[in-house]
Design a protein that fits this description.
CATH architecture of the largest domain: 2-Layer Sandwich
CATH superfamily of the largest domain: Reverse transcriptase/Diguanylate cyclase domain
Helix content: 25-40%
Strand content: 25-35%
Distance between the termini: 87 Å
Structural class: alpha+beta
Largest sheet: 6 strands, antiparallel
Number of helices: 11
CATH topology of the largest domain: Alpha-Beta Plaits
Number of domains: 3
Shape: elongated
Amino acid sequence: MRPRVIRRGVRADEAGNQPASSLQPRLSLLEHQDLRPGSLTCTELWIGMRVTTQTGESVTPACLEQLAIRAQRFTPRVSLAPPDGLLLEVKGSLHLFKGTTGLMRALADEYAGTGLAAAFALAPTPLAALLAARWGKPFIVTDKARLIGQLTHLPLTLMRWPAEIPERLARMGIRTIGQALRLPRAGFARRFGPGALAELDRLTGRDADLRQPLRPRERFRQRCELTYELESTERIVAELAPLLTALGNFLRARQCGILKLECLLQHRHAAPSRCVLRLAAPLTDIPQLTELLGERLNTLELPEPVRSCELRSGALVPHVPTCRPLWQPGEHGGGGQTQSHELLERLRARLGTEAVYGLQVLAGHRPENAWCVREPTTGFTDTGGWPPPWSAFHRPLWLLPSPQLLREKAGLPRRRGALRLSAEAERIESGWWDGSDIERDYYTACDIHGVKLWIFRERLQPHRWFLQGVFG
């Protein structure tokens, strides 16, 4: 049975058809026989989609990108075809929606509330699906062998070539795609250029049509202008609620989390206030983000009332949802990793980023270069995959900011009296490659009060003694 289509609108498209007034009327395509993945012979199946406003005007580039992002719910292979087209490769998604009928219905439901008009078409090549969507009439072809026969009566204006090419072809009596395909290839390329011939080859599947998939923005950024100036942190957090909701949708669509969130507060005369929230683990939970951001804002001193707010996310990181354990922390071996993350994030929100940090052991022999400060995780130390090069020796965790010169008597070090040295020494000669080389002999020593010290003696003249660290 021939599909029925309902057309409404006020402006004709390129093929002379009236555009649809909403997405729903074009779903007369669903009246055709349902196609299942097993019944398809083509290697790819594309949905072409032409989107316009109610008056037939093209949508803005930002609107088209937002529609493409929403289409990634159905397939990861979504491409833009500006100014009014979208392309979706859906063969691998048909089994998730029980065939083309379910997929098209779900696609229409996704865009039902946008107030836009759209036309759909299915074809085994992306350019054929796009041209058929521009045509505006029911077009469903799944067999590449039947594609040329279905394309023959489409007008050449759908190709959107430069105006001079269709005009020259019209003077020759060539007005449809079928007539253009019957022309000698060498003569067509010589008269109208190899680019036009290559497009015809991509249209029919003779050449591959490689479409660049949409890559959404990797960072979130959105601003909110306030109707009146605010000084209260609670009111600022309330005004940030729509931005945080948009951030949650942004992260959910990409199945990613963030480790950094920046809130920028604009004032009338003073410089903008920056509130940076750093997280211990990738987070997507908006209520938890809102609570942590409120804690961080409470510690911020505002020079003036706030006129506008802006949220900026850090780079997106993959997020794997965690499952709650059967046992609570402390019961029958239940772990507390989630609680550790929440504790770190709350401490950093209240005390500041610089007050809570982690330590990482580095593969270096010099004590000054054997560790560094890093972003905190559930553990506070990390070897970074390297075994400590000094694992055979005992070193203190508390090192002085710079070695302290010790007094000497008869060539032996003194600190509040004579020091007793351990028999075994650790010799370190390293750093010649970066200009900070050292040559030292390290000893463990005890003073008269039993305090255990880590000291060293220079191997070069004048052989001075220094205090490097103290054992706990």
